[in-house]
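Table S2 (text version). Query chain:
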Amino acid sequence: MKKKIVSILLTLVLLLITFVPTIKASLEGDKTDIQNKIDAANDKKDEVSKEKKTALEEISDLEDTIAKYETELKELNAEITKLERTIKTKTEEIAKLQKEYEERKQLLQDRLVAVYEEGEITFLDVLLASNDIWDYISMNARIEEMAKADNKQMDELEAKRQEVEKAKRELEEEKTILDNKKKSVDAKQKDLKIAKASKESKVAALSAEEKKIQSKLESYNKELKEIERKIAEAAANAGGVYNGSFSGTLGWPISSSSDFYNEVSSRFGSRTSPVAGASSNHRGIDIPVRKGTPVFASADGYVVTVMHTNARGKFVLLKHADDLYTRYQHLNSYTVSEGQHVKRGQLIAYSGDTGVGSGPHLHFEVLRTPYYMTEIDPLNCGLLSKPSNLIIW
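Corresponding structure-token output:
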């Protein structure tokens, strides 16, 4: 009976040892998917916030420009009103001068007619009409003075008329220019108000989108905490699953016989997202090998998980000694399974282009724990053996 109980207990322990890593691996996959969603949501929220800030700044600039045009419009309207008054005054002056000019012109015409009808005043006429020589001289001088005065007045009157007419034309031209400028400013003001209304509508939409994203983030974070709690519990239950030796350095995951094995197309850390959905905070390095290139284990270890997620695609997570982990992503296929022990340099997968990426490549990570955000820079962690002819784009 005791032997039977011991046998059952041993079976249960073996099942637990086999089952716990599988549970943990599954939870890690769930956690990765949630974290990818959080990253994408945070990136989107940052993008929306920046867009909203830009729109608000543009609205502020538009308001300043609108105020400027409103002030300019008031000044132009005042100037136009003043010009209209001036033009009215000048027009009245011209009418008055025109009347005076016509009256003088008529008088002159009447005098000429009278002279014509009476005949030309000759030397003899003046002489006969004079009482004496002095009277003749005086009368002749007066006639000449009158003629000169008439001519002078007519010349001055004509000059004045031309001057006022010129002033009127200039004022009319200025009024036309100001009217056109007023129309231009008014049109710009209308366009600015329409643009402002459009920007305000956009800001309102962006604010609503921010709230929606924030709600999603809160939900994701809540779900992530629960997954982390379960992972920690599973990790505690699988504490001694792998106790193999670690050589002290991690081998390069691609053989030197493969094309592009010595190239890194994307470093660890901050970067511009290469495609929609890809993280802008790169947590590993990308080696741009062709699809189907053999991928090898960097050190002796234990296969914690073999999984496929939307963001990572197909990937393998290995646990090594001293709580060191490596992850191999965007695989086309894998040759290992969960719970399997592997040796350094052992074939574990073939590279591909699954998940979110800009093309075929191997995404390689080094982690201090199996958890997200414990990744370290593979090229600068002092643990990875790099090709001597390494090329970094």
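Notes on Table S2: The longest helix spans residues 2-118. Residues 18 and 339 are 7 Å apart (CA to CA).
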